[in-house]
Design brief:
Structural class: alpha+beta
Largest sheet: 10 strands, mixed
Number of helices: 14
Radius of gyration: 23 Å
Oligomer: single chain
Strand content: 15-25%
Length: 469
């Protein structure tokens, strides 16, 4: 859309409020709202002011003034508000220089797509994320100097099978993949989510229950270009959480909220195209992969420890990235094999369907940064012809110790991935896609506010291990 068309869209849908949204460095949607009479074409030139020092990872207080510039192509109607409300996503600029803000995650995604074109390797990157989530009946947590606790619950959960009030048909651990109702108790809720996504402009392909007990779900979107897909994922997460909330549930994208069962991942399908043709297909290659596709995989695996700082960006992410539970911790690639970090789906013989799936990310990732980092790692692999380890078409969890010994694995903690990012980020700086300032701000925030904060607090299981010794 043009600015004029965006203003017309708002008027045609009888919106009374326009919600102004942008994404902070850690991947949270932020917003404020203006009356519709203040949403004019001038806003697309003049922008809207906000305090950058109050947004995590952004500005210092002495340089707090920033501008939000609406992207007319991003406008949609909010499916939840009582009063008709249009939503528009914004880019961030410096009010003095009117230059794009280097720590705006959305601008990073835009630059990543521009850099791809500049390389001549391709002109389009398609991303297809599979974001999983849990829907709980209740989610409780508390932290303080004298104690801490958390508790999640669901009518589906196997631990409720002995309650007299339970309605039956609970789901065993790892038993949640594709059962029909009444075992799957969230069909109607996911359908509501799906229809609201469609109303908001998301192309949804399917929805289903996922493997874990206690309400693990997945709704699949059709692939799209990098920045647009990141925009869609922000909408997706908003609609999932808000639909659950309005129905008396709590939805969370936390990767590992339940001990002893599968966590929530976000497998990211990727393919590069040039002049309308796929570049990842070669009938003669392993699993139908071209040289560029294989080198792209080499880049992903070479830089995986650093990539996970953006792709699996929480301390909780590394409760999921452990052996078992379909966790893709082995830095290998393989056709069809879900125990490898990179999988080549073999569901179609069409060259247009040839893609690779990086399985380590989870849905807590800031999609603008995660998708951009994946592209930059893959391009580095192509540019330097990085060969990945030989593909291995075996269950990597069941390999004999000697055979498994030579396979590298993903880092075991957020702190380790942040260290890897600090030591390996030159590939991200190409084309000024990522900046040193963004990377340093990101690392510092994560180390202080997440790694240190978790490490300093006693864990409940430590009391079980040590309190009476």
């Amino acid at each position: 859309m043009t600015p004029k068309e965006a203003v017309s869209f708002v008027a045609e849908n009888d919106a009374q409020i326009v919600d102004i949204r942008f994404t902070d460095l850690m991947g949270t949607w932020q917003h404020f709202s203006i009356p519709v009479n203040h949403f004019t074409e001038d806003r697309f030139e003049e922008g809207l002011a906000f305090d950058g020092s109050s947004i995590r990872g952004f500005q210092t207080i002495n340089e707090s003034d920033m501008l939000l510039v609406p992207d007319p192509d991003s406008v949609f109607m909010d499916p939840f508000t009582d009063v008709a409300t249009a939503v528009i996503v914004c880019n961030i600029e410096d009010p003095l220089t009117r230059q794009p803000y280097a720590k705006d995650p959305r601008y990073t995604a835009v630059k990543a797509e521009q850099y791809l074109k500049s390389t001549g390797i391709g002109d389009t990157i398609f991303i297809g994320p599979e974001a999983e989530f849990f829907v709980f009946d209740s989610l409780l947590f508390e932290n303080g100097p004298s104690g801490a606790m958390y508790k999640v619950d669901s009518d589906e959960a196997f631990w409720n099978s002995g309650k007299e009030s339970n309605t039956g048909f609970t789901i065993k651990p790892k038993g949640g993949y594709f059962p029909v109702a009444p075992v799957d108790k969230l069909q109607d809720l996911r359908t509501q989510m799906t229809l609201k996504m469609i109303d908001a402009g998301i192309n949804v392909e399917m929805h289903h229950h996922e493997v874990a007990t206690a309400g693990q779900c997945e709704i699949d979107m059709k692939f799209d270009t990098l920045t647009k897909m990141a925009d869609q994922l922000m909408k997706y997460k908003y609609i999932v959480k808000q639909t659950a909330y309005q129905n008396g549930y709590v939805a969370t994208f936390m990767p590992k909220p339940i001990f002893g069962d599968n966590g929530s991942g976000m497998h990211c399908h990727q393919s590069i195209w040039k002049n309308g043709e796929p570049t990842f297909y070669d009938e003669a290659g392993y699993a139908g992969l071209s040289d560029n596709a294989r080198w792209y995989i080499g880049g992903l695996l070479r830089h995986a420890p650093a990539l996970l700082a953006f792709c699996a960006p929480t301390t909780n992410s590394y409760r999921r990235l452990v052996p078992g539970y379909e966790a893709p911790i082995n830095l290998m690639y393989s056709a069809r094999n879900r125990s490898a970090c990179v999988r080549i789906p073999m569901v179609s013989k069409s060259p247009k369907a040839k893609r690779l799936e990086f399985r380590a990310p989870d849905p807590m990732a800031n999609p603008y940064l995660a998708f951009s980092a994946l592209l930059m790692a893959g391009l580095d692999g192509i540019q330097n012809r990085i060969e990945p380890p030989k593909p291995l078409d075996k269950d990597l969890y069941e390999l004999p110790p000697l055979e498994r010994a030579g396979i590298e694995q993903t880092p075991g903690s957020l702190r380790a991935t942040l260290t890897a990012l600090a030591n390996d980020h030159e590939f991200l700086l190409k084309g000024d896609v990522f900046t040193t300032d963004l990377i340093e701000s990101y690392i510092e925030y994560k180390l202080v506010n997440e790694c240190d904060a978790v490490d300093l607090r006693p864990h409940p299981y430590e009391f079980y291990l040590y309190a009476d010794n």
